[in-house]
Design a protein that fits this description.
Layout (H helix, E strand, L loop, with lengths): L11 H4 L1 E5 L4 E5 L4 E4 L4 E3 L1 E11 L5 E13 L3 E11 L2 E10 L5 E3 L5 E5 L28 E7 L7 E7 L5 E7 L2 H14 L5 E4 L6 E3 H10 L3 E8 L2 E7 L13 E3 H7 L3 E3 L1
Parallel strand pairs: 5-9, 14-16
Antiparallel strand pairs: 1-2, 1-10, 2-3, 3-4, 5-6, 6-7, 7-8, 8-9, 8-10, 11-12, 12-13, 15-18, 16-17, 17-19
């Protein structure tokens, strides 16, 4: 990320140490090695590089150019986010949450009212790592200008659903949750197996949680053209198997979004497995 660099207005001696919010709650510790630890216990790099940044504030929609002395923004998969800090007098600084999407040119700030942080002058910075930084970031004493995004917090597997959370990228507060179906993993594995199979081979599907094929499975088989799909399943107390041969003609099938395995069993001359 490029930043317009100006002469440093702050030195490392102005920054290193423990900083609290105005209510006395722990906020951040800056270390000599140019890393910091925030109130959640997360560690990331920082750089003393006085400059300015034009941001659009989420709360007001206004655009403002703010000066800063410390830059601590890290790149993410979909956006860059973090904090910038401005020394306003010895032992006192302003702090802004800032973020920018990968496909965006404009930086945003979660609030037009930056936090004020006070340096703990009687704390030895070499032992500041002992500061209790485990304060619950969603507790009533924590004031975060939340910025929420949907992200996978529990990955689904073939046998268990996962979970997606609408979570603040700064403090981890979760506003909403929704399940991520295990079918996503099953589908991706099946389609990948068909697409990557060698010509003339047969892909076998025997996942017990599926009882039908969506239309897109047949579409992929038709597009591939040279791969067969064998399906083993249980219905009632019996085990069944049917195979959709490579290059099958699907015009005799009823038009539907989903095809039950018992229907396909009859359509492709399947059988009971003893």
């Amino acid at each position: 990320m490029s930043m317009p660099i100006t002469a440093n207005a702050a030195g490392k001696e102005d920054v290193v140490g423990d900083w609290n919010k105005e209510d006395g709650q722990f906020a951040v510790t800056f270390y000599e090695d140019e890393t910091l630890k925030d109130n959640r216990g997360d560690t990331r790099p920082y750089k003393i590089v006085s400059s300015s940044l034009t941001v659009t504030h989420d709360d007001t929609g206004a655009t403002e150019t703010v000066d800063y002395d410390v830059w601590s923004v890290i790149p993410g998969e979909n956006e860059d986010f973090g904090m910038i800090y401005k020394i306003i007098e010895p032992g006192k600084m302003k702090a802004w949450n800032v973020y920018k999407g990968k496909d965006e040119s404009v930086w945003k700030s979660t609030s037009s009212d930056p936090r004020i942080l006070i340096k703990e002058t009687d704390t030895d910075s070499d032992t500041s790592s002992d500061t209790d930084s485990s304060t619950d970031s969603t507790g009533s004493n924590y004031k975060c200008e939340h910025h929420y995004e949907w992200s996978i917090t529990t990955e689904p597997t073939e046998i268990a659903d996962g979970e997606s959370s609408y979570m603040c990228i700064f403090c981890g507060d979760i506003k909403a949750r929704q399940p991520v179906s295990a079918d996503v993993v099953i589908r991706e594995k099946l389609l990948s197996s068909i697409k990557n199979a060698q010509a003339g081979t047969t892909v076998t599907f025997n996942n017990k949680s599926w009882r039908c094929y969506p239309q897109y499975v047949l579409d992929v088989l038709k597009e591939k053209g040279d791969v067969s799909l064998k399906t083993d399943f249980t219905y009632g107390e019996n085990n069944y198997s049917f195979t959709i041969p490579a290059g099958s003609d699907y015009t005799n099938l009823e038009q539907a979004d989903f095809y039950g395995f018992m229907y396909l069993l009859g359509a492709f001359n399947g059988s009971i497995v003893e």
